[in-house]
């Protein structure tokens, strides 16, 4: 176990360095001039342009810029935003909490509703509920996130704005953060596609496990169907679901670009979109590096969770 963790940690370091260097290379060759962003498009004097270029080391080769960036990161300095003039660490600290809160709501919806719906669909195979679940998940996967978000805003925010009295609980904020209700629409919008995949994956893997020999043996011993499913079948069936949920959580923590834009959430996804539009490279590199870091850490956590769920799995 210890050797496995050490090996994975070393792999994480290699992945982080490789991903950030590739990103630096792309930012170095794409069209555009960061000086326009730094100066607000007002730098016309060649002397000023040359001085800004030298100050931000934009005249150096990509590997020199990358080494300069890594050296600063190791000292806890993520750089300064070209546009905002603030430290990138301050910007991320302000926006990260909002993204994490929204991601936790979305992943809770995926786990609770998705796993339960998948279990019920597998147990009641070919029933009306199973058919309804198949239709609903197909629809959820096929609807674009932007369309779903706008439909929810129209149906549960705009159309319900006139409700009063007892029916006020159906009113939800259109955009922004205004209490716990603000999490409902963006949280569901963010979770719905992965929720559909979790439901289908849970149903499929559980059906496969229920046909295994050890499940038939457990039934032959006279165990109740509930004990067979929860104690024997579910433990093995949930492992592929755990993998998908871990990847999904990494995606959510990396910032939900479309959802945060639709609901003006103000997380790192929305910050990244704005940075890309104006070529604010320090923010782009920092957010992307953070996303890669989240993915590799969650990948390690998921692998370790395998052993906790199923002791037969050996990581060595």
Fold blueprint:
Blueprint: H1 2-29, H2 34-39, H3 46-55, H4 62-74, H5 88-123, H6 128-142, H7 145-158, H8 184-210, H9 213-220, H10 225-253, H11 257-262, H12 268-278, H13 281-309
Helix pairs in contact: 1-4, 1-13, 5-6, 5-8, 5-10, 6-8, 7-8, 8-10, 9-10, 10-13, 12-13
**Beta-strand share of residues:** under 5%
Q: Please name the CATH topology.
A: MetI-like fold
Give the CATH architecture. Answer: Orthogonal Bundle
Radius of gyration using CA atoms only: 24 Å
SS elements, strand count:
0
CATH level 1 class label = Mainly Alpha
Mean pLDDT: 80
Order of helices and strands: HHHHHHHHHHHHH
Outline, from the CA principal axes? flat
Helical element count? 13
Largest sheet descriptor: none
Task: Please identify the structural class as seen in this structure.
Answer: mainly alpha
Total discrete domains: 1
Helix content: over 70%
Low-confidence regions: none
What is the end-to-end distance?
6 Å
Give the name of the CATH superfamily: MetI-like
Overview of the structural elements:
- The chain has helices spanning 2-29, 34-39, 46-55, 62-74, 88-123, 128-142, 145-158, 184-210, 213-220, 225-253, 257-262, 268-278, 281-309.
- It is mainly alpha-helical.
- The protein has one domain (88-309): Orthogonal Bundle (MetI-like fold), CATH 1.10.3720.10.
- Helix 5 (88-123) packs antiparallel against helix 6.
Annotation keywords:
316 residues; mainly alpha; MetI-like fold; 13 helices; 0% strand
């Amino acid at each position: 176990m210890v050797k496995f963790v050490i090996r994975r940690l070393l792999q994480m370091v290699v992945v982080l360095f490789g991903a950030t260097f590739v990103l630096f290379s792309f930012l170095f060759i794409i069209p555009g001039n960061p000086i326009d962003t730094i100066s607000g498009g007002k730098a016309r004097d060649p002397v000023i342009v040359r001085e800004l270029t030298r100050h931000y080391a934009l005249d150096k080769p990509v590997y020199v810029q990358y080494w300069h960036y890594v050296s600063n990161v190791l000292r806890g300095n993520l750089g300064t935003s070209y546009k905002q003039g603030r430290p990138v660490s301050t910007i991320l600290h302000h926006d990260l909490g909002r993204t994490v809160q929204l991601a936790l709501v979305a992943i809770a919806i995926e786990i609770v509703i998705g796993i339960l719906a998948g279990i019920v669909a597998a147990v009641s195979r070919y029933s009306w509920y199973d058919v309804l679940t198949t239709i609903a998940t197909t629809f959820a996967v096929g609807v674009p996130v932007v369309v779903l978000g706008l439909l929810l805003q129209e149906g549960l925010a705009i159309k319900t704005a006139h409700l009063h009295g007892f029916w006020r609980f159906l009113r939800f904020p259109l955009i922004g953060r205004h209490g716990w209700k603000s999490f409902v629409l963006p949280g569901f919008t963010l979770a719905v596609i992965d929720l559909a995949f979790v439901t289908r994956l849970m149903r499929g893997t559980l059906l496969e496990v229920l046909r295994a020999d050890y499940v038939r043996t457990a039934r032959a011993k006279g165990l109740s169907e509930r004990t067979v499913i929860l104690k024997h079948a579910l433990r093995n069936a949930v492992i592929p679901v755990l993998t998908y949920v871990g990847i999904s959580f990494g995606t959510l923590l990396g910032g939900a670009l479309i959802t945060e834009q639709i609901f003006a959430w103000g997380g790192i996804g929305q910050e990244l979109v704005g940075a890309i539009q104006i070529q604010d490279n320090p923010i782009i590199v920092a957010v992307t590096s953070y996303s890669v870091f989240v993915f590799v850490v969650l990948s390690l956590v998921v692998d370790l969770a395998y052993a906790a769920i199923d002791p037969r799995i050996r990581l060595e």
